[in-house]
Design brief:
- This protein has a domain of 179 residues: Lipopolysaccharide (LPS) transport protein A like domain (lipopolysaccharide transport protein A fold).
- It has three helices and 39 strands.
- The protein has a 39-stranded antiparallel sheet that branches.
- It is rod-shaped, with a radius of gyration of 43 Å.
- InterPro entries: OstA-like_N.
- Keywords: Signal.
């Protein structure tokens, strides 16, 4: 007996709970006027506003409208005219028309739709709202106004829990300082962070960023870009495996496989790390940096530990520091540092720490090779003709030393205080050496037979070259000199003081710019995750409930993901059959006739009904 009573009690409690749960799913409502029209709206209540809008309440969502058609058994309504929808304190939406299915908690709004959140406002023509997923979706074009920008796209999806928008197709962010265009942007409203996917550009007044995957802080104006990323300035382009950009500081940095292209001066710097300061017109490049410029259809390459490019396009200055190496097909050189003035066509090789005699310090001294002719000194200056882009002349200041490797054996040597060389068709054809000059020269016959070795002192010497070999030497005001047979000149006396042949350092090909150096260890690039794969927005419920209702103005084919919307944008403001009746109550009449007995159901005062 007791067991039966317990069973009955349990059954009653279960039925009560089920009824309570079912009751919780039903839509509550308030209205000023209602009637039924079974011919037009079978099983539905037709409601309209008199003094107050029709009001629906369902599980945390409230809807107000001027007119409505409510299908009680289906828990579904259509709302017309000045529709307002509110979910909690964070979501509100206005539209001309809306539908809502209480069983699936799926809503549809159209006509001047405006959804407001604390950080953003969404405006579109047609919007779908899934309360179970807490997602909204449009495909007829939408505009989102953020605290800093305006975002537009053809397709958009909003995720309430993440406060995130996914914009697809013709995506555009408009800000007073820049415009972003992309195929796909994920935008987080609270932070203002935007993730860019596919071909994307960020175009400002003074720069344009391109990437195929990137991140941009729309409020902080900073960004990080990977995959085919580049920044274009007025006259400079920066490329790299990854780019960082700060608009506030006019700063950008590039990492791994970087290129800085100077479009104004037809030159390029490569390396694996670069920093660009646009307002200062300066770029610093490290990690195997190489500057390349075109000169008379031939490229000049300069490498050092660090390269610095400064100045406006019409007055670019290139500086290289430490272990400078220079290569051109007809010339190469090395030094401790280098200075290049592109406007004047002047290149200077310098040792910024002179005075030491250690082997390491000696290798820092400037050296220049033209064929087998080696020139050294405290400073070497090369001058190019800007019009012809050919080498014009060179100057060696202080401790000038010219060494020409003899065609058979030994070295021809000339030293003095100043050396001036002249070029013709990029070939060194004449050298003048002045002040306290000395020479050691291997004299040969036309058949290259050695006559003897001469040592001469003079005030000035002229040397003429042919095919990079010494052809003639002229002495001016010679004070001492002799020519001795080879056997009478000891090997220890076959070099002048300061002789230092560095031919083993000569660069014979472009790859020698890095000879003897370990490749830099590249930084591991921090990637940007791919967009999340999200399911179809129009997913039917597991229990098979339709998202909307058979009485919806939407057709089954409308509840499919499409590239664009096909639903007519113009919506009826009131349900069919509802019209203004001269006998119906207006707000002023309602107040006047408050004490009168109502004549029919269309003039019933405000009623509050709940469907149990």
């Amino acid at each position: 007996m007791l067991r039966n009573l317990l069973y009955i009690l349990f059954l009653l409690i279960s039925i009560s709970l089920a009824h309570a749960q079912e009751t919780g799913r039903k839509i509550d409502y308030e209205n000023d006027r209602q009637y039924r029209d079974e011919e037009r709206y079978p099983g539905a209540l037709v409601m309209s506003k008199v003094n107050n809008q029709v009001h629906f309440i369902h599980q945390g969502i409230e809807v107000w409208c001027n007119n409505a058609v409510f299908y009680e058994s289906d828990n579904f309504f259509k709302a017309y005219g000045e529709v307002r929808m509110k979910q909690g304190d964070t979501v509100s939406m206005n539209s001309d028309y809306a539908e809502y299915n209480g069983n699936t908690q799926f809503a549809f709004a159209s006509g001047k739709v405006k959804m407001e959140r604390p950080q953003t406002t969404l405006e579109t023509d047609t919007l779908f709202f899934d309360r179970i997923k807490q997602e909204a979706y449009y495909r007829s074009g939408g505009k989102v106004t953020d605290t800093a920008s305006v975002l537009t796209s053809t397709i958009g999806r909003y995720f309430f829990e993440e406060d995130k928008y996914t914009f697809l197709s013709n995506v555009k962010i408009t800000n007073p300082d820049y415009i972003v265009n992309s195929d796909h942007i994920d935008f987080y409203s609270e932070s203002g962070h935007a993730y860019l996917y596919g071909p994307s550009t960020i175009e400002g007044e003074e720069s344009t960023v391109y990437c195929e995957r990137g991140f941009y802080d729309t409020r902080g104006d900073t960004g990080y870009f990977v995959k085919n990323s580049k920044i274009d300035y007025d006259n400079r382009t920066v490329l790299g495996d990854s780019l960082f950009f700060d608009r506030n500081k006019s700063f950008a940095s590039a990492t791994n496989n970087i290129q800085v292209i100077d479009t104004a001066n037809d030159s390029k710097v490569t390396g694996h790390y670069a920093e660009v300061f646009r307002e200062k017109d300066s770029v610093i490049i490290t990690k195997w940096p190489v500057a390349a410029s075109l000169q008379n259809q031939d490229s000049l390459f300069i490498h050092s530990d660090t390269l610095l490019v400064t100045g406006k396009p019409e007055n670019r200055i290139l500086r290289g520091f430490y272990d400078v190496r220079m290569y051109k097909t007809d010339m190469s050189g090395k030094s401790d540092s280098i200075f290049v003035n592109q406007r004047d066509g002047i290149t200077k090789l310098i040792n910024i720490n002179p005075g030491e005699n250690s082997p390491t310090s000696v290798k820092r001294n400037p050296v220049l090779w033209s064929g087998f002719n080696q020139m050294t000194g405290d400073t070497i200056q090369i001058i190019s003709n800007k019009e012809t882009e050919q080498l014009d002349s060179l100057k060696v200041y202080n401790n000038a030393f010219l060494i020409n490797k003899d065609s058979i054996d030994g070295y021809n040597q000339i030293k003095g205080q100043i050396l001036i060389g002249l070029f013709e068709e990029n070939e060194l054809y004449k050298v003048d050496i002045d002040k306290n000059t000395e020479t050691l020269y291997y004299s040969r016959t036309e058949n290259s037979d050695l006559i003897g070795i001469s040592k001469t002192l003079s005030s000035r010497i002229e040397v003429y070259f042919k095919e990079r070999e010494i052809e003639d030497v002229y002495y001016y005001q010679a004070v001492d000199g002799d020519l001795k047979p080879e056997e009478q000149v000891l090997k220890s006396n076959r070099t002048l003081q300061g002789f230092n042949w560095r031919g083993d350092e000569r660069l014979e090909k472009k790859q020698d710019l890095f000879k003897g150096k370990e490749p830099p260890e590249l930084v591991k690039i921090q990637g940007i995750p791919l967009p999340q794969q999200i399911e179809n927005f129009f997913e039917e419920r597991e229990d098979g409930d339709m998202l909307l209702n058979e009485n919806s103005r939407l057709k089954p084919q409308d509840l499919k993901d499409k590239v664009q919307d096909s639903i007519p944008s113009v919506q009826p403001m009131i349900p069919e059959g509802v019209k203004v009746d001269p006998n119906s109550i207006t707000p002023s009449e309602a107040k006047t006739n408050a004490t009168k007995k109502e004549k029919d159901s269309l003039q019933t005062p405000k009623a509050t009904l709940k469907i149990e």
